[in-house]
Write a structure and sequence with these properties.
The complex is a heterodimer of chains A (about 475) and B (about 130).
Chain A lengths: L10 H9 L5 H19 L2 E4 L1 H16 L11 E5 L26 H8 L3 E6 L22 E2 L2 E5 L5 H8 L5 E6 L5 H7 L2 E4 L19 E6 L2 H11 L12 H4 L16 E4 L8 H17 L4 E3 L6 H16 L1 H6 L8 H10 L4 H21 L5 E5 L21 H8 L4 E8 L5 E8 L4 H13 L16
Parallel strand pairs in A: 2-3, 2-6, 9-10, 9-11
Antiparallel strand pairs in A: 1-3, 4-5, 6-8, 7-8, 7-12, 11-13, 12-13
Helix pairs in contact in A: 2-3, 5-6, 7-15, 10-13, 10-14
Chain B lengths: L10 H10 L18 H4 L2 H17 L6 H23 L14 H7 L3 H6 L9
Helix pairs in contact in B: 3-4
Classes of the chains: A alpha/beta (about 475), B mainly alpha (about 130).
Amino acid sequence: MPTEERFHLPVSELAKQIASKKLSPVDLTKLYLDRSEKLGPQLNAYARLTPELAMQQAEAAEKEIHRGHYRGPLHGIPYAAKDLLAVNGIPTTWGAKPYADQVFDYDAAVIDHLRNVGAILIGKAAMIELAGGLGYRFASASLQGAAKNPWDTTCWTCGSSSGSGAIVAAGLAAFAIGTETWGSIVCPSAFCGVSGFRPTFGRVSTYGAMALAPSMDKIGPLARSADDCAHIFAAIAGHDPRDRNTLPIDKAAFTYSPSVELKSHALRIGWLTNAWPNIDPQVQKVVTAAQAVVKKFFPGMREATLPTGPWEEVGTIVVDVEAAASYRDLIRSGKVSELIDPLGQISGYLCEQISAADYLQALKIRELLQKKIDELFESFDVLVAASQPTPASPLEMNLESGPDYPDPLGAIGNLCGLPALSVPCGFTDNHLPVGLQFVSRAGDDLSAIQAAKQFQQHTTWHRQHPPQFAKPA
Amino acid sequence: MSEQKKPAITRREFATAALLTTAAATLSAIPSPAQTPTPAQTLSPQSTQESNLRVSTILSLYPDRFSADQKTDLHKISASTQQALDHLRAYQVQNSDEPALHLKPLIEREKKPAAIPSLAHPAPGANKL
């Protein structure tokens, strides 16, 4: 494996250099800003850069560290935040034309947390308009246009955290913050060959984040390793009285130390046999090889099956109804017609027509599903499956014309608030990344992290980078 | 109806497809939406009526907002939504089943009698966080 350029190093290694004063946060911030200015537009990765704020934060971090006040592994580390997280005084567009000039006078809780640990915000990451909350047919459904995959710029990054995936894969920042209601962290992580973590619902405050489906919205990191994701998760997790969906203090907080001995031998791993009823043969080939690696280091691994039921329909109705409520003003005013995507322009009207009785039926089934899944986790600590059944799709593809891929695991994971960590596990013949996801019980985020970290200790997929973006800008 | 000649899929299916699509050539063994019946084709007469009524309501509320193509699109999406609703309604729930109004799995788990889960399998994350 060739030596990695500094901009592709994981947070854990950058942090060591910063802590030992071998690396200046100011220099690192300039490096990422420079790359982001030059390469970001090639990928439609950013909604905007925040160079003034970044340099101000970098200089402050540098001074503190020189005075001996090192705050921890994110101190002096540059990152990007999805453009649905409020940043005081800086436009937060939600990726959508009707909100192109929206400016908040406060910071989202996640932005606050990251500032408090000394991380440096270098820009707002591009995203699918309204995080796909009203649907979309084309990758171009974003104020910045279609986000291009650094592994193959004729392919998409996936959405809705599209810019976050591109930024991390191309080495434009050390990590990025994304959000997921259904697939929006796991899929870009898989398509872009990065590590992405969807935490347990309620562990990270959504205060100051755009609401899509408030009972399913989650915030998490995209980074270069499971270990990095754990560090970032530890910084952003925690109870927040401003977000009534956050778990209580003792359940929301997450502490992490990489020096803690991994107890992977004790983890009960289940290999899911029915996560993807349809799967691309090339992806299957890569995932089968990954399965052998997992089996080697978790010899007790057994097959596991998801319960069957109308989980995707339940997820659809919950998201549709909650999105209709979240964007009610936009729909009723008619400004929804300003959205780019033809589906987004009209589907909200239909979402509004779903009855309360049907919504409550969906929530009743959701409750039953949660019980079934809790029972499944009596036998397993971690469930493993391909993150996606296909590699990245072509940029211009009309998604209406593609084959249908049932996604029971995505529906179940998001309806039940389960944590999931997607890591790279290989490449197709066309050198497009394939992801493997580790899913654990709600609240047991550490098991997913431990299993993914163990996988990465024995593989190097996460240390490979897109050739076109492997060199200095 | 013209919409029956084209694949009609739900917003969820769009989102799923958006997440999951790739070159169809590698997936020739998998039926594409064009090869499978559209939702509108599979609905019962009653469901078709409900689906159409939903669109009529929208058009009566907002008569000037939609082009002819968008009206056709509304019918296609409504049919897919109807299919999801039909599946949802067919799933048996009891009067006493509670809706998941608050998704707090950890708290709910702790409300269970402690002996039941912990005797057989200690909560895996309980001592790790």
